[in-house]
Write a structure and sequence with these properties.
Rossmann fold, about 45% helix, 7 strands, binds NADP nicotinamide-adenine-dinucleotide phosphate
Length: about 240
């Protein structure tokens, strides 16, 4: 699918990878970008760069009513980017309770699922289009320091496969993205090499243009993915050494 002339909808666009999406989509020639955020006021400077092409939208992906309103209002979308996400840096057992785990599922998994359910008919009516889901390399191997987040991202990976199959008949490209550490607020405390968000987004948009379904957009993701294909238990043991406090 051509990113140029697409009409994109990006969740969590006020900072991090979502903001980089808006900047890169603008540069790649997207016709219009709906930049959404929980607090739309945080989009003011981003939208000021091209007010005729970047439209601010207030959207919390855990609020089904807001999702329905967005889908009812923006029927011209051809590229849906499910970027909004949270990471609690909690263990599965070390956490005091399961509140963080439940919150991560609510945003990362159910938020993404509700967005896709609302926008899939719109993509169909606009020729198929594409969906990009921000999963994680932690979708494929659990990082115990982020144990409950990893589980929520494994759910996003599974959802991506299922949605791809269900939407194949309407011609929607469904792209799963599996980054390693990216240099944003989310990964601020993560002691690994980090890739700049705009580099990650460039790789994702190239994949959308090429019709690729699975994207490993940075060197850490590429290395871990190769390791998982070779000896998954060895990688599990390696990242399993990173335990929660
Ligand atoms: N950074 C990494 O190393 C990394 C690696 C792999 C995958 N990812 C994934 O990439 C995506 C973007 O991450 P990031 O690094 O850019 O994180 P970030 O800097 O923490 O930004 C997260 C974004 O998601 C938004 N968000 C959170 N909950 C939301 C909700 N309920 N409704 C709408 N927006 C919500 C945040 O909005 P507020 O400002 O309102 O909180 C913010 O805009 C996430 O899905 C993340 O899991 C990140």
């Amino acid at each position: 699918m051509d990113v140029r002339d697409s009409i994109a909808f990006v969740s969590g666009a006020n900072r991090g990878i979502g903001r980089a999406f808006v900047e890169e989509l603008l540069e790649a020639g997207a016709a219009k970008i709906y930049a959404s955020a929980r607090d739309a006021a945080q989009l003011a400077d981003l939208c000021a760069a091209a007010p005729e092409r970047i439209i601010p939208v207030a959207l919390d992906v855990t609020k089904p009513d807001m999702i329905q309103d967005a889908a009812a209002s923006y029927g011209d979308v051809t590229l849906l980017v499910n970027n909004a996400g949270i990471a609690g840096f909690s263990g599965l057992i070390a956490a005091d309770d399961i509140d963080v785990a439940r919150g991560e599922m609510e945003t990362n998994y159910f938020g993404t699922l509700n967005m896709i359910r609302a926008f899939a008919p719109i993509l169909a009516s606009n020729g198929g289009g594409a969906i990009v889901n921000l999963a994680s390399i932690a979708s494929h191997v659990n990082f115990p320091v982020l144990g409950s987040y990893s589980a929520s991202k494994a759910a996003v990976h599974s959802l991506t496969q299922g949605v791809r199959a269900e939407l194949a008949a309407q011609g929607t490209l469904v792209v799963g993205v599996y980054p390693g550490p990216v240099d944003t607020d989310m990964a601020a405390g993560f002691p690994m090499e980090k890739t700049p968000p705009r580099d990650v987004v460039k790789a994702i948009l190239d994949a959308v243009d090429a019709g690729d379904e699975d994207v490993y957009p940075d060197p850490v993701a590429v290395e871990l993915h190769a390791g998982l294909l070779g000896d998954a238990k060895a990688v599990e043991g390696q990242v399993g050494g990173m335990l929660p406090e």
